C-alpha cells in the first residue's frame, strides 16, 4: 500500500512510520504545520507542532529513508479546532480539542488530501487497535490501557477507518521508546506533549478571556439561590470544577463547592455540593458508528465521557429518528458536561470494542 505517515515529531508517530516501512508499505512522511507562529508553542512537554517538532520529524524520516514533506494546515486548524474550542466554551459547553483535531484535521483534511494524491491509508501513532472483521472496521482499546486513545478516535467513520493504520495498538509506551532507541531515532526519550497544544502555558481561562473578553456574571448557590460572588465569564469554568471559583465565604455545611452548571445567556455559574454532580442519564447528538453499524435496540455497554477515566456500565439506545442517543448509566458519573463526547464500548477480553460516540447535549 501507499501510506502517508503523519509525523508529529514525537516518538509514537516516528515508530508508527518505522513499522509501516518494515511492513513493506510505500511510505511518505508528512508533518502538519498547525500554527502560523509555530516557534511559540512548545514549552518543555507542553504544546506540539512547533518548528522543533518539524525538525525532529524530518530527522526521523531521514533515518527511515522515506520522503518527507511539511503541509500547512494552520488556517484549517484555526477555523475548525481553535475557533470551535472558543465558541463551545462561550456557549457554556466543554469541548475536547484533541477529538476535534482527529476528526477534522487528521482524518478529514489530511485523509482527503492523501486519497486525492493516490495514497491508500494514513498512518498515525495513536494507541488503539484497528482491524477488519467481515469487511467492517473494528476499533478497540490498545494494549497499553494508560495510553489508550480509542476515545478520541471514536468519532471517526467506518470509511475513514478503512483508510487508517494504527501500528502501535498492540504495544506499550515503554516498548515503543525501547524500539525507537534500537532504531536510532533521536526522539526515543523526547517527552510526550500534554494539555492543549495551542495553549502551551496551560492557562485555558486566560486564553479564552483574551479571545472573548470579560463577560461578567454571578456565582450562585444552586440550592439557596444566594449570590456568592462575581466572575469574568462562564468560559472560565467547567462542570465539576472545584478550584479557582473565587468564592471567599465557606459553604454553610463546610463542604467544598463545585461547578454544577453554566448559563451563558445570563452569565450564571451555579455551584453546589459534590453529590449534586452525579449523573445517571445522558442525551447525546450526532452519533457516529466506527463499524458502520448503528445500535439496534437497547444495548448493554460501557460508557466513557473523558479521554482517560470517566467510565461506567450503561444501557444505550438510539432514538427513533437516529439523530440522538440516550444513555442510562448503571453507576453515576461526576463532572459530565455538555460538549463532551460519550463513547460506547462493548466489553471484550482482548480490548473493549468501540460501538459508537456522540456529543453530549444534556444530562440528568
UniProtKB/TrEMBL annotation:
Region: Interaction with tRNA, residue numbers: 147-149
Keyword tRNA processing annotated: yes
What is the top-level taxon of the source organism? Answer: Bacteria
Q: Where, in this chain's numbering, is ATP bound?
A: 6-13, 32, 125
Biological process GO terms, please? Answer: methylation; tRNA wobble position uridine thiolation
Keywords, A to Z? ATP-binding, Cytoplasm, Disulfide bond, Methyltransferase, Nucleotide-binding, RNA-binding, Transferase, tRNA processing, tRNA-binding
Molecular function as annotated in GO: ATP binding; methyltransferase activity; tRNA binding; tRNA-uridine 2-sulfurtransferase activity
Q: Name one Pfam family in it.
A: tRNA_Me_trans_C
Note the site residues: Interaction with tRNA. 126, 340
Residues of the active site are: 101 (nucleophile), 197 (cysteine persulfide intermediate)
* Cross-referenced CDD domains: MnmA_TRMU-like
Per UniProt, residues of the tRNA-specific 2-thiouridylase MnmA-like C-terminal domain are 280-360
Task: Please list the residue ranges annotated as the tRNA-specific 2-thiouridylase MnmA-like central domain.
Answer: 206-272
Its catalytic activity? S-sulfanyl-L-cysteinyl-[protein] + uridine(34) in tRNA + AH2 + ATP = 2-thiouridine(34) in tRNA + L-cysteinyl-[protein] + A + AMP + diphosphate + H(+)
Q: What class of enzyme is it?
A: transferase
Q: Where in the cell is it found?
A: Cytoplasm
Q: Where would you say this protein principally sits, based on its record?
A: cytoplasm
Q: What NCBIfam families does this protein's entry cite?
A: PRK00143.1, trmU
Q: What does this protein do?
A: Catalyzes the 2-thiolation of uridine at the wobble position (U34) of tRNA, leading to the formation of s(2)U34.
Q: What is this protein called?
A: tRNA-specific 2-thiouridylase MnmA
Tell me which species this is from: Streptoalloteichus hindustanus
Q: Which gene encodes it?
A: mnmA
Amino acid at each position: 500500500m501507499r501510506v502517508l505517515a503523519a509525523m508529529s515529531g514525537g516518538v509514537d508517530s516516528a515508530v508508527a512510520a518505522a513499522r509501516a516501512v518494515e511492513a513493506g508499505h510505500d511510505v511518505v512522511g508528512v508533518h502538519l504545520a498547525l500554527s502560523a507562529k509555530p516557534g511559540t508553542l512548545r514549552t518543555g512537554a507542553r504544546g506540539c507542532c512547533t518548528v522543533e517538532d518539524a525538525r525532529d520529524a524530518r530527522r526521523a524520516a531521514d533515518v527511515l529513508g522515506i520522503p518527507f514533506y511539511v503541509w500547512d494546515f494552520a488556517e484549517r486548524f484555526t477555523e475548525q479546532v481553535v475557533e470551535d474550542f472558543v465558541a463551545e466554551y462561550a456557549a457554556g459547553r466543554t469541548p475536547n480539542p484533541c477529538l476535534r483535531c482527529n476528526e477534522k484535521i487528521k482524518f478529514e483534511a489530511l485523509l482527503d488530501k492523501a486519497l486525492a494524491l493516490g495514497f491508500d491509508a494514513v498512518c498515525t501513532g495513536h494507541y488503539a487497535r484497528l482491524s477488519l472483521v467481515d469487511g467492517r472496521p473494528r476499533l478497540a482499546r490498545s494494549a497499553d490501557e494508560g495510553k489508550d486513545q480509542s476515545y478520541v478516535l471514536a468519532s471517526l467513520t467506518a470509511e475513514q477507518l478503512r483508510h487508517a493504520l494504527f501500528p502501535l495498538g498492540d504495544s506499550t509506551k515503554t516498548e515503543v521508546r525501547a524500539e525507537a532507541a534500537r532504531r536510532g531515532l533521536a526522539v526515543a526519550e523526547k517527552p510526550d506533549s500534554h494539555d492543549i497544544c495551542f495553549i502551551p502555558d496551560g492557562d485555558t481561562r486566560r486564553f479564552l478571556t483574551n479571545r472573548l473578553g470579560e463577560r461578567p456574571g454571578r456565582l450562585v448557590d444552586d440550592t439557596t439561590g444566594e449570590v456568592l460572588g462575581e466572575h469574568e465569564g462562564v468560559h472560565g469554568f467547567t462542570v465539576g470544577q472545584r478550584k479557582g471559583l473565587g468564592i471567599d465565604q465557606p459553604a454553610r455545611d463546610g463542604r467544598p463547592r463545585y461547578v454544577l452548571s453554566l448559563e451563558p445567556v445570563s452569565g450564571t455559574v451555579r455551584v453546589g455540593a459534590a453529590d449534586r454532580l452525579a449523573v445517571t442519564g445522558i442525551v447525546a447528538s450526532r452519533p457516529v458508528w466506527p463499524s458502520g453499524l448503528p445500535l439496534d435496540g437497547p444495548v448493554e455497554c460501557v460508557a466513557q465521557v473523558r479521554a482517560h477515566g470517566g467510565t461506567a456500565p450503561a444501557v444505550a439506545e438510539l432514538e427513533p429518528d437516529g439523530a440522538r442517543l440516550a444513555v442510562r448509566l448503571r453507576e453515576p458519573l461526576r463532572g459530565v458536561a455538555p460538549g463532551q463526547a460519550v463513547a460506547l464500548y462493548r466489553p471484550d477480553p482482548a480490548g473493549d470494542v468501540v460501538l459508537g460516540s456522540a456529543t453530549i447535549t444534556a444530562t440528568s
